[in-house]
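Example record used in the benchmark description.
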Amino acid sequence: MQKSLWSEEPLAAKIRPKSLNEFVGQEHLLSKGMPLRLAIENDKLYSCILYGPPGCGKTSLAEIIKHSTRNTFKHFSAATQGVGILKPMMKEAEENFRATGKATVIFVDEIHRFSKSQQDTLLPYVEEGAVILIGATTENPSFEVNPALLSRCHVFTFKPLSPENILTILKKALKEVDVKFSNEALQELAEMAGGDARTALNSLEAAIKTALSMGIKEIKDVEKIIQRSIPRYRKHADEHYDFISALHKSMRGSDPDAAIYYLAAMLEAGEDPLYIARRVVRFASEDIGLADPRALSVAIDAYQATHFIGMPECTTALAEAVVYCSVASKSNALYKAYREAANEVKKHPFDEVPLKLRNAPTKFMKDNGYSKGYVYPHDVENAFVMENYLPERLKGRVFYRPSNRGLELKIQERLKKLWKNFKKW
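Model output (structure tokens):
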């Protein structure tokens, strides 16, 4: 080996970029002339949040800033250090600012691990200008960063690294060792990393250690060493919402292939199958409704099967429900009807039920007009009475408007026939 691979720091730390010119990826933020790059190059830093998935370069960029800025730079990890350590750091930054007029750059890694109240500790120092905050997070800052603090920071969104970016990083890392990799093996590592350079480098390091222990000088196939890729889906992060959203939109778009793909991606990554089943039940009533009432039954059956037999046996029950919902006729008429009715109730919460619709179990209630004038529909021909069942203010109002799809077409025709010249369609 050219250098000791097994010294005190891992390969990922050894080849961390020392300058912006060595940094790989995030071209949309760090290409020449881009605002973030100019701020770093000119040492005109401002408070910001670096938001993106693991292994995309957030901490590496902070290290570059550390070595390029003339301001005092402090590193703080919300994962391993508490507010008790941060407060003296802030106080020192304030004293330094008042004495020299220079702000302290404080890099808070995994800032989302602080509660909103803990994040409040940072706010006065950022407002005063004593601290230039650089926060790094894998979680959506809209949800995880205090709104007051977020409003004082620019958010830079980092993207997963492309396989080409990771290939460049892997080739750089290979200069540190004597073991060779075929182009195919390197490409496989790059693809398996899922946009995470740290994962790629750790996999490379594991492959190299295994090769050396076996006396292998060139690796042509990493499949036996790296059994599988790290799933892109993380059930407690943004992907939890991104993938369930993609599942919904695929079913809504009547694409069973995409829907079953996202279902598999979530289940294989360890998502709670009952969570998915509940979302499919909701979808069946929200996006299909009476266009195909059977969809709700299929979804509930799938939920019960999932509850009864669990993973992995429940996968086909869920797949059945997802595919059925994908190919079923679609209508959001029920969803829209409920939302419109709910808005009406919120705007006018004191509308009274017409007297004729009220039950009258006592003589007093009958004497006061309860149920007076009500006609029992089953007592008349066709079991239908042209009657206003809404509060008088809403007479003739329509909330449910059936679509022209599936069973709802027949429902629409029947309702229009029954309520002709009464309801305002």
